[in-house]
Amino acid sequence: EAQVTQNPRYLITVTGKKLTVTCSQNMNHEYMSWYRQDPGLGLRQIYYSMNVEVTDKGDVPEGYKVSRKEKRNFPLILESPSPNQTSLYFCASSPRQVSYEQYFGPGTRLTVT
Amino acid sequence: AQKVTQAQTEISVVEKEDVTLDCVYETRDTTYYLFWYKQPPSGELVFLIRRNSFDEQNEISGRYSWNFQKSTSSFNFTITASQVVDSAVYFCALSDRKLIWGLGTSLAVNP
User: Fold this and answer.
1) With CB atoms counted within 10 Å of each terminal CB, which end of chain A scores lower, N or C?
2) Cβ contact (<8 Å) for B33 and A41?
3) What's the sign of the alpha-carbon dihedral A70, A30, A43, B28?
4) Which residues pair with A9 in a beta bridge?
């Protein structure tokens, strides 16, 4: 089944404790992206990747890191999480670039206390 | 500047009513793409439709239809005979050089 998977689905952590949210897609898509969704602010892009080893900042990259060592995986790293990073995070993939529809993972609800 | 406006923040209808969700966009590019996504209460984001700027034909898929009008820069979404399962947040998005999202319209369909 074609899908985007994210883990974990729920995470409660404390300020400053490094964490990684994994994202994997099995559709051989070139483009992958991370978003955060906050009430009243809609979906905001954090980082995106056009292909392996090619990543770029989105609209709200501060406090996040990503890597794309393999085509299928695009982990999101929070090296020192802070409470303002409490949010719902989505990973998405697309055959190519942003002109194609994106397929989203189920979301990761992160709480930083 | 690129922008997507979904002026209706929340809509509430009774089952079987028709409902239209508005989407107005701004772009200077002649080539662009428009999308609608659905986010049901379970939280996942589901792709509904993609339309390119050169195709102004209206699209119908079951009870869903989309009206694309370049003259008014609008890409409106109509649900005919709404059902409770249509309750969700619906997002409109524009892609030219980057993807721009509207803030979404929350639709509640009441029995």
Assistant:
1) N
2) no
3) positive
4) none
CA distance B23 to chain A (A): 15
Q: Please indicate if any CB of chain B lies within 8 Å of the CB of A45.
A: yes
Asked if B8 contacts B21 with a C-beta cutoff of 8 angstroms, the reply is yes
Residues ≥6 apart with Cβ < 8 Å to A75: A20, A21, A22, A23, A66, A67
Contact yes or no for B91 and A43 at CB 8 A: yes
> A60-98 b/e with 16+ CB inside 10 Å = b?
bbeebebebeebbebbbebeebeeebbbebbbbbbeeeb
B103 with A102: Cβ contact below 8 A: no
What is chain A's pLDDT, residue by residue, as a tens digit (113 residues)?
Answer: 889 999 999 999 999 999 999 999 999 999 999 999 999 899 999 999 999 999 999 999 999 999 999 999 999 999 999 999 999 999 999 998 777 889 999 999 999 99
